[in-house]
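Long-time lurker. I teach an intro course on protein structure, and each term I like to show students one example going from raw sequence to a predicted 3D structure in token notation. This year I'd like something fresh instead of my usual example. Would anyone be willing to generate the tokens for the chain below so I can use it in lecture? Attribution to the forum is fine with me.
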Amino acid sequence: MTLNMLVVDDSAVMRSVIIKTLRLSGLQIGEVHQAGNGVEALKVLHENWVDLALVDLNMPVMNGEELINEVRQNKETSDLNIIVVSTEGSERRINSLREKRVEFIHKPFVPEDLREMVFKLTGVENEQQHNGFADASGDFDF
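-- Reply from a regular --
Happy to contribute to a lecture. Here you go:
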């Protein structure tokens, strides 16, 4: 199965890092959409099929928690797999997010941890037959 993803972060650099990491992960990645805040993300979700969203918490206009609440309240997106990728993360906040069926990974993250979390949430097998990243020996330019 090919995964369509949405990366939501107000930092274009961080979006690029996450997208590059996903593309090198060995997972079967289809379309990767980007949004700089929650409002842009809702528009993308309205216009495209997305299997997984990776969401920052601190963003202008509409933050990550507000986006997650909107997504969970909409019957068309309520089952969307979501991973919060953030520098913030008190235990209380992480537990609150998990109650909303959201996983959490701290920035900076280890690429293998992100891949494993995507696999855990989606059940999609690694297209490589080994537990590692697809040819990550090349340049890793962001």
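Some talking points for your students: The chain has five helices and five strands. The longest strand covers residues 29-35.
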